[in-house]
């Protein structure tokens, strides 16, 4: 068995190294165009303007405005195709705003790969680690690295976990954040003062990436719009139109006005995540389902803020759990329950809160009483016939083409959105008979990134004479576009809530620049206010309603 594992690793090493060789020519080919700063004066067309300019036909129509749909949008636009994206609700209103906020290869998938000698799981890790580096480079103000401690209970298992963490490093050669290391318990107590005093012999520290998912999703949309695409939220596709058995376009309804539109398309991409089967069966009623959705619940805790995360390697039901710093709060998650559960259930909250008591001292651990918010997201898992349950299913993505030409892309995870989009758009181009063009999204930084640096918050605080928490929030949320928000404030930085850094000027900015159509869009997907403190966000609704009323009339 050991020889087999060694051969398995050697073969993979060659594949990984070959896959990572990028020529200087490729890296520089698109640098000039996409490295140029987007002027602060640029403003996206309004939703009404986009609707008035709907074309009779497009090269590609994308249905779904989550991570993969937004990724397909930017990919197709930067290849030079004419593109229309349609989302029935708000962008990132589904699974894509309800993640663990990790950009990762998936260290738990690596363990499965080694135990089962599974190439599927291993290549999923390799792809994730490669995409992780690209992801971090595309939006430096919305992403960051995070150290995570994997506690080890028995000294006998230290070599096992050391080898796993080092292999995670090895697989990320050329894409690494920082090397993993072993820490004795005394050092862990220094870094995590609240860690339990018993049951831990030491731990491995490894590094992964973290993101602000819904805002990154919105910036993919905004960036694609800047480069010439059209993306509309609150537009529901009612029908796939066909001629001689082939899809020729779509009919959709603007749900705000009820007005109906019909457009032709050379190719249509189904990027509707866990709802993919609905559109597939609209296309072909007798098609078998391909989705095996699983629900993941997370909570935000206040009161145990620290710069390091901790992973529970094996909960009572055999899964893993993360406790991660996220801005000035802590994310705890996740569950893995087969099926659709749009709301977090009480038993899910209790499970999450209680499982971490094994690792954190009770007098320090905030527990269920300090839950600031909770969310439930449905993972769009593609059917894995070989898996015994959703926890062991391979999180690989699938690109499928129906007999009528519907291109469905689903499965995967946030980290791999760009690679999924690349494959889906290339497939859609072939289906539609479009000219083949190279994917360039490895080089396309999102709006807000071009002139951003880590001192931006300090610069804003100094120039505007405002509190550091507001300045840092604006820099972290908007990147170099924070200066545009400052222009909206015009010297008046009115907080929406005295305990939080959100200001009224950014509400107006997101309405004009980020497709915000209602209060929920702002609170839940452009600001994360509702995630950090759902009670304060609810209390802010009357004041926000006045702002929206004035803006929309």
UniProtKB/TrEMBL annotation:
<dbReference type="InterPro" id="IPR036188">
    <property type="entry name" value="FAD/NAD-bd_sf"/>
</dbReference>
<dbReference type="InterPro" id="IPR006076">
    <property type="entry name" value="FAD-dep_OxRdtase"/>
</dbReference>
<dbReference type="InterPro" id="IPR031656">
    <property type="entry name" value="DAO_C"/>
</dbReference>
<keyword id="KW-0274">FAD</keyword>
<keyword id="KW-0560">Oxidoreductase</keyword>
<feature type="domain" description="Alpha-glycerophosphate oxidase C-terminal">
    <location>
        <begin position="439"/>
        <end position="553"/>
    </location>
</feature>
<feature type="domain" description="FAD dependent oxidoreductase">
    <location>
        <begin position="59"/>
        <end position="417"/>
    </location>
</feature>
<keyword id="KW-0285">Flavoprotein</keyword>
<dbReference type="InterPro" id="IPR000447">
    <property type="entry name" value="G3P_DH_FAD-dep"/>
</dbReference>
<dbReference type="Pfam" id="PF16901">
    <property type="entry name" value="DAO_C"/>
</dbReference>
<protein>
    <recommendedName>
        <fullName>glycerol-3-phosphate dehydrogenase</fullName>
        <ecNumber>1.1.5.3</ecNumber>
    </recommendedName>
</protein>
<dbReference type="InterPro" id="IPR038299">
    <property type="entry name" value="DAO_C_sf"/>
</dbReference>
<dbReference type="GO" id="GO:0005739">
    <property type="term" value="C:mitochondrion"/>
</dbReference>
<dbReference type="Pfam" id="PF01266">
    <property type="entry name" value="DAO"/>
</dbReference>
<dbReference type="GO" id="GO:0004368">
    <property type="term" value="F:glycerol-3-phosphate dehydrogenase (quinone) activity"/>
</dbReference>
<dbReference type="GO" id="GO:0006072">
    <property type="term" value="P:glycerol-3-phosphate metabolic process"/>
</dbReference>
<comment type="similarity">
    <text>Belongs to the FAD-dependent glycerol-3-phosphate dehydrogenase family.</text>
</comment>
